[in-house]
Amino acid sequence: xxxxxxxxxxxxxxxxxxxxxxxxxxxxxxxxxxxxxxxxxxxxxxxxxxxxxxxxxxxxxxxxxxxxxxxxxxxxxxxxxxxxxxxxxxxxxxxxxxxxxxxxxxxxxxxxxxxxxxxxxxxxxxxxxxxxxxxxxxxxxxxxxxxxxxxxxxxxxxxxxxxxxxxxxxxxxxxxxxxxxxxxxxxxxxxxxxxxxxxxxxxxxxxxxxxxxxxxxxxxxxxxxxxxxxxxxxxxxxxxxxxxxxxxxxxxxxxxxxxxxxxxxxxxxxxxxxxxxxxxxxxxxxxxxxxxxxxxxxxxxxxxxxxxxxxxxxxxxxxxxxxxxxxxxxxxxxxxxxxxxxxxxxxxxxxxxxxxxxxxxxxxxxxxxxxxxxxxxxxxxxxxxxxxxxxxxxxxxxxxxxxxxxxxxxxxxxxxxxxxxxx
Length: 423
Ligand code: UGA
Fold this sequence. Notes:
By secondary structure, this protein is of the alpha/beta class. It folds into three domains: about 1-200, NAD(P)-binding Rossmann-like Domain (Rossmann fold), CATH 3.40.50.720; about 210-295, Rossmann fold (3-Layer(aba) Sandwich), CATH 3.40.50.720; about 295-420, NAD(P)-binding Rossmann-like Domain (Rossmann fold, 3-Layer(aba) Sandwich), CATH 3.40.50. The protein has 15 helices and 14 strands. It has helices at about 10-20, 35-40, 50-60, 95-110, 125-140, 160-165, 180-185, 200-230, 235-245, 265-275, 285-295, 295-305, 335-345, 355-360, 370-375; strands at about 1-5, 25-30, 65, 75-80, 115-120, 145-150, 170-175, 195-200, 315-320, 345-350, 365-370, 380-385, 405-410, 420. Strand 7 (about 170-175), helix 7 (about 180-185) and strand 8 (about 195-200) form a beta-alpha-beta unit. The site of uridine-5'-diphosphate-glucuronic acid (UGA) has 19 residues, from helix 8. Uridine-5'-diphosphate-glucuronic acid binds next to helix 8.
């Protein structure tokens, strides 16, 4: 199929290479000229395992990038994959989704061939039907006889997004009519996963609920971890016993410094906002958010317990990305940790295999090291905030510290003489 993908960000570009890998011809449309130039020269604008290889394989033959919407007219399907940021209150900004819808509508004007518009961006339930579809119908001056619509949320995890695209647990397709369903089912036929067909609104809701539930599992594990630590119980041992029950599952029960990223925190806030706008009181969701916001504070409290005042203390921070295998620092727990260390007058020297340049944009004044040993040499304490595999075997490197005080915000180290934030 000929497919247009609007948005060359994490989700849009991974979706595009995945669709090209499935045998489709894909045009990525993005207004950012330098991003389009990078894609057209088969360079990934951000790090994601497997992305570079698939760009190299498909760019110029079945994958192209453009700054204009011209190709939408020749394609059978267009995917809207632009970001939908939420403000502090959880209110979702739909500006990019709306302008994409208008541009798609204009590009489809005067054509008669059937076209399906698929919304992959995470939007509040009801948005596709009340905002996006009317805009596309209005701008294209066409009707449902030649236009189909679907909400097809993605469940890709950063750092594993390409593999997740090719091997998802399920594909959720919210559809307006049988024709859109048939086209999408055909498009996904090479992927071995159940296709769950539902209404557009349910599909939009399923995305928010999935992320809010994952966030709930993590905050639950963190709260249990905080209790366990007081009792000198290892929460990882407890969750190993608890997670072996198939009704619970061992996944997303890893306690630590809290969840970050651009999705879990955002979708949780958006669901709270939605619930409150409906007059509901989402007690549980508020608690999930609060546990997460408080968790990074435990790092500097532990440091203060061991070092006293942090002023002029040299603290090595290992791990800046919100999770391993990405250079993404959005919502990273490292941000509030560094902020409070800085505010308390500590000298921070940070290291991450990929995310240093991104973090420099947030904290230009702190020091950055080129390798863990450089960060650790002479440090009064070390905090580890991302479970990068390269940290796993660190041990003798900690002996280069002034004092060997090692606090893990993620459980990864194999050595002895360390302490977990909540284990
Ligand atoms: C999340 C969802 O997992 C995806 O299914 C979804 O598609 C995506 O959001 C999205 O909406 O786009 P992602 O944010 O990439 O994916 O990362 P996760 O693997 O969910 O991790 C999120 C955060 O939770 C990370 O900071 C991670 O360290 C933390 N986490 C995860 C824990 O603290 N404990 C765990 O047990 C698992």
